[in-house]
Amino acid sequence: MKLIKQLLAIATFAFAATGVASAQTANEAPDQLVKRISSEVLNTAKNDKEIQAGNTRKVMDLVETKILPYVDFERMTALAAGRYWREATPEQKRALSTEFRTLLIYTYSGALSQVRNETIEFKPLRADPADTEVEVRSQVNMTRGEPVLLNYRVAKTASGWKIYDINVLGAWLVETYKGTFNTEISKGGIDGLIKTLAAKNKQLANKPLATAKK
């Protein structure tokens, strides 16, 4: 689980960084954009002593500035909730999206402090230039062991490319959470799921980032 969360952090931070120069790179292919900027983001995680030490506030600030604007949390939540999303009220949708976003923030924040000497190698993009949704394929070269394949789905929106799903070790993040969501909803409905996520987030808020678990 620690490896999966670490890879999620690498993938998300690499892609989230694309928002830094979106105005100047509107016509750049998503994989080229990620490749060009990701090294800077990873270097920050690797070389910042406070981040490496698990400085909660600094890590959380970095997550909120680099990830929140460039990840489509509402779409991720809707996909994870599946058919139940259509049955939810607007208030429930907002609450569920907020709690899911918070959970992912804790996941990414906890993993970020564990990034060391990993590097990312991107595969050729298999997409038409006119496509508005693409799958960017890459592999993470680990300091020990075999490279790990890592893919992520991104969509072009009015505000630029945004990530909405990540595949780590053959499992899509949204699909993984969909099973958990369905189980909780079957027991207590949408409100029950929201309550469960809120309790989990409260628990994670009281733990050091280095020990936070999914």
TrEMBL record:
Signal among keywords: yes
Alphabetical UniProt keywords: Signal
Pfam families: MlaC
Signal peptide: 1-23
Superkingdom of this protein's organism: Bacteria
Protein's UniProt keywords contain Signal: yes
UniProt cross-references to PANTHER family, sorted A to Z: INTERMEMBRANE PHOSPHOLIPID TRANSPORT SYSTEM BINDING PROTEIN MLAC
Name recorded for this polypeptide: ABC transporter substrate-binding protein
Organism from which the protein derives: Pseudoduganella umbonata
